Amino acid sequence: xxxxxxxxxxxxVEKEFPHPPQKVWRALTESSLIEQWLMKNDFQPVAGHSFxxxxxxxxxxxxxxxxxxLAVEPFRTLSYTWxxxxxxxxxxxxxxxxxxxxxxxxxxxGFRPDQEANYKGAQYGWKKFMGNLEHVIAGxx
Amino acid sequence: MRRSPDSVFKALADPTRRAIFxxxxxxxxxxVHALTERAGVSQPMVSKHLSxxxxxxxxxxxxxxxxxHYQARPExxxxxxxxxxxxxxxxxxxxxxxxxxxxxxxx
Lengths: 141, 107
What we know:
The structure holds two protein chains of two kinds.
Chain A: E1 8-17, H1 21-29, H2 31-37, E2 40-41, E3 50-54, E4 64-73, E5 77-84, E6 87-97, E7 102-111, H3 113-120, H4 122-140
Antiparallel strand pairs in A: 1-7, 2-3, 3-4, 4-5, 5-6, 6-7
Chain B: H1 6-13, H2 15-27, E1 30-31, H3 32-39, H4 43-55, E2 59-64, E3 67-72, H5 78-85, H6 89-105
């Protein structure tokens, strides 16, 4: 077995949109709009609200991401947990107004998959891994 | 400390090795004999490929009597998944779609 690894991985993506923060906020927080750019969902912009994001199921993964809203600061910050088959990370959107629109930064920070696999067992790790891989591949298309 | 994905990339660069690994992940544990029957190469070659997969920790083996059984360890692909994930491809793609949604909202 590998040595337990305590580091976490974090992905940061930033982009500027030529639209005001109010409008970007709507796209991040209205269920029907979220579905159009992210996934099917039952999101509500209420701290503590549990919801799911749903992709098409794939081999060894039902395509469901379990989430819970952590912070809602209108037009500024939105964060929620992001759980796929035993691995949990936190997704945080930060909005900053600019002269021409809104700068959006998303950070996904969480535990490394191999760390999870260490204590959840190989089978669980396998399922979780497939979830992560499909998730990443879906993003490449 | 981060594990390098080099060994995983090297192990999976060979198509025969990749086919063996895919078969183990799909069909579960197999003996070297069973793998050889469908690999299209000799048993010593299959054993050599399995050793390379084992060095990359992509498979592990156990002996039972005269047979060696191999099992896939797909979680060993984690460094590769991390490597892809580091480019933020998922969120970049989603942000492109978000930009389209924002355009449509104007209309």
